[in-house]
Amino acid sequence: MYRVPHNNTHKKMEERQPILLHPGLSGSPNTFLYIGNRSIVFFLVNNGYDVWLPHRRGSAYGKGHIKYKRSDPAFWDYSYHECGYYDIKAEIDFIRTKNPRKVILFGYSMGTTETYVYAILRKEHAKKHISGIVSAGVTAYLEHPNRFYVQISLAAPYMGNSLRFRKIHGLYDSWETNKREEEMTFAKIVGAKKSLMALFGYNPDQVDPADLPVYIADHPTSTSIKCFIHFAQNINSKKFQLYDYGLLKNVFLYNSTLPPLYNVSDIDVPMYLFYGESDTLNPKEDIFKFYNDLKVRKKGLIHISEDKRVKFNHADFVLGKDADKVFYGVLLKILRENLKG
Question: Does 172 or 110 have the greater pLDDT score?
């Protein structure tokens, strides 16, 4: 994990509340640094937080394993479930050895999914060690994603089997291993902007072309095929559920022919969800349903922006031109008023 503890001040570390930032699918700590000095990391540090940025397993900085080589299929045998159940607990336990204050858990996109898995399946640990969860780009219920994701999800099982047959278990692995500096052209920047609109929602006003070269050079980082398949299963089934291994293995693992659902009513820590009007990956009807299923008393659902003139899409929480103007201030108010620990 990276730690960004201070901004050249001499404030004692135990006076700074730790906040752990989890990125989206194929993301890395760089996800929270794409827009330079306007990035959320520097905003949080400058406002007195002890910021922690984990590298997800399988990425360029997550290559190590005590048992498996990167070429072993077992190395890649994980989805957001394992990242939430095992990795977040380990990260929080480590942070608490360095800072005694309760941790704020911040997730973006798949990072939100991991935090929900953790809070559901590690309920007592979460109540003891975190002051709450903040979500940007909520990704849990996937009943109404845009047509692109629906079509890809239908083909995902066949694509996954084809790749595994060719002994490919990690996506973008060879691409990231062989990363090298490339010439940044106008065509690449225009292509990246169009891709962002197609994948995450139409909102061209929030894309500053000057920010895109960093995004293009860094994204995506390597991850497992299983992560993509797990999301595809959720879209196809319209359920927020554990990984579906097929009838026989499901019976062996779950004692059921179908995978069990993640019971979001089990979450028992404060929850604050941010959403944007233009998000087509996770449209507001899915977020509203998820929010209504939360039984925790201390929760909030926050629209970006408050005056509804700026309509964030899914990517704007980390790439938006006006993120520092319409998102960070509201976020800081939530953190200070509701999530002190």
Answer: 110
